[in-house]
Amino acid sequence: MNNKNIQHLLKSIPKWSLVKEEGIFKIQRCYKFKNFKQALNFTNMIGDMAENVGHHPSLLTEWGRVRVTWWSHSINGLQEIDVICAKKTDALDCF
């Protein structure tokens, strides 16, 4: 996916950021919660969703926050499924 396509797709997920880690473009968002239990419940909801779609993010769960990073391991970059999964993450009913 080229930079123009990435920028276009990012407009549909404005709370997400484009990051580059080890030369790989990824999309990332940090969600905030009142405590660790809420953060862990959200992490588990993402895990269930990821299993259902067969696409898995990087998750960092800490007290009061979860950092979610989507990218496609198979191509070492972004594709449309990553944006779809970001939207699905945003839609989880936990806020």
Topology:
Blueprint: H1 3-10, E1 17-21, E2 24-32, H2 36-53, E3 58-62, E4 65-70, H3 80-91
Antiparallel strand pairs: 1-2, 2-4, 3-4
Strand content: 25-35%
Evaluate the radius of gyration: 13 Å
SSE pattern? HEEHEEH
Low-confidence stretches: none
What structural class do the secondary elements suggest?
Answer: alpha+beta
* CA distance, first residue to last residue: 32 Å
What's the story with the biggest beta sheet? 4 strands, antiparallel
Strand order of the largest sheet: 1-2-4-3
Overall spatial form: globular
At CATH's second level, what is the architecture? 2-Layer Sandwich
Binned, the helix content reads: 40-55%
**Total helical elements:** 3
CATH topology: Gyrase A, domain 2
- Counting DSSP E segments of at least 2 residues, the number of strands comes to 4
Q: Could you say how many structural domains there are in total?
A: 1
CATH class value: Alpha Beta
- The CATH superfamily title: Transcriptional coactivator/pterin dehydratase
In short:
The chain is α+β, with helices and mostly antiparallel strands and 95 residues long. The chain has three helices and four strands, in the order H-E-E-H-E-E-H.
